């Protein structure tokens, strides 16, 4: 009986952020487990892997230039960490109070309203971040009937209908702008918070539904009970470093940019690099932002017919202090900033209170976001100008008088994809048409089905599984 050997295949992954790394890792593990002849190549334009995840370890401080934590409601990051043997390095946040800056004052947000764990309805209606009329209107959620949602809508429209204008301005908008740099008047409710539609359907009142299910505003998926901010001992880059070291059967090319990708007559893909070379691939995974993917596939009629995706430009500003400089809000973890305030910053976190071991004992580490949709110009200022603005805001907000011993500014130009109205349907139609043009190309990452770290890890896992199934079907066909 003649032995048939599966032809060796080549998969090229474009982009070495968390999506690309997760795809490469699980593709490597799965093909080794099934003894499939597969060559895997990962290309990244940067000289370092990790994309927006970038940890600076300096003078005893652990500083995150990009994201500093995640909500792992699907346990995708924990699953990846378990497979990488670093699950024991996952750390969770300490408890503390959260505030909203309205005008020049900080107002505490009721306990559990953000993270879940049965928020008390009375605490929402008696809190001081709403006026008397705002509380009366917010209480209307208990009486309003559930409404049909046949079409997507802005986040602001949904919450304004349930709770009124003031709660949107004083809670929903600052929390979401401080987290996703998004404009609640344009960001899709269906893409970002679909679970609230289900809460309304099941309970009528969102307040009642949040109390009974234990979901807070941040509970993006059907996860009962309280959720936590999580990170890794040593910072988020601990996960990136472990992934890179685990990719023993993957060729990693750093400092190379993919200029364009074209389809060959045999349906393989030809990748043209900025060093003048090219390579052929049987399958390609593109994890870059959508607007970059659109330039790479410049001959794609489907992508050319799509408008560019909107992205927010932000900066993170981390300030280290050689001693404890704040006593006034000694148990505060963070505060968000309402648009009605007098501040340029959008959120501030006491990183040393949120997580242990990110600052030397007795020292403090504050992390501030600046920039949001419609207010990106501040990010282009010099470091000195940004430092002056941030310190002025922190002096007004929390009485900070000291100057930092260390400051790290990280600018992220067009870094936060904005899922505008109709995003999910638009992406589904686009992918269906694009894959008809390029059946061996996979578009994945934060531009498509979730912008958080767990979302991107999930997409990487699913992409690897999809490619594996195609290879197994090819093997069985032989």
Fraction of residues in helices?
25-40%
Class inferred from helices and paired strands: alpha/beta
Main-sheet strand order equals: 7-6-15-16-17-14-18
Q: Can you give the mean pLDDT?
A: 88
The low-pLDDT segments are: 219-225
Strand content: 15-25%
Give the overall shape: globular
Features of the shown structure:
alpha/beta, 19 strands, 16 helices, globular
Q: Could you explain the architecture of this structure?
A:
The structure is a single chain. With 478 residues, the chain is an alpha/beta fold. It has 16 helices and 19 strands. The strands form 5 sheets. Strands 7-6-15-16-17-14-18 form a 7-stranded mixed beta sheet. A 5-stranded parallel beta sheet has the order 9-2-1-13-19, with helices on one face. The two termini are 14 Å apart. About 1% of the residues have low confidence.
List the helices and strands and how they pair.
Layout: E1 9-14, H1 18-33, E2 38-44, E3 55-58, E4 61-64, H2 76-83, E5 90-92, E6 97-102, E7 105-108, H3 121-126, H4 132-139, H5 155-163, H6 165-180, H7 189-192, H8 195-203, H9 206-213, E8 230-232, H10 237-246, E9 250-254, E10 258-263, E11 269-273, E12 278-281, E13 283-286, H11 290-296, H12 301-304, E14 311-321, E15 332-337, E16 345-350, H13 351-354, E17 364-370, H14 383-398, E18 406-417, H15 423-437, E19 441-443, H16 453-477
Parallel strand pairs: 1-2, 1-13, 2-9, 6-15, 13-19
Antiparallel strand pairs: 3-4, 5-8, 6-7, 10-11, 11-12, 14-17, 14-18, 15-16, 16-17
Helix pairs in contact: 1-10, 1-16, 5-6, 8-9
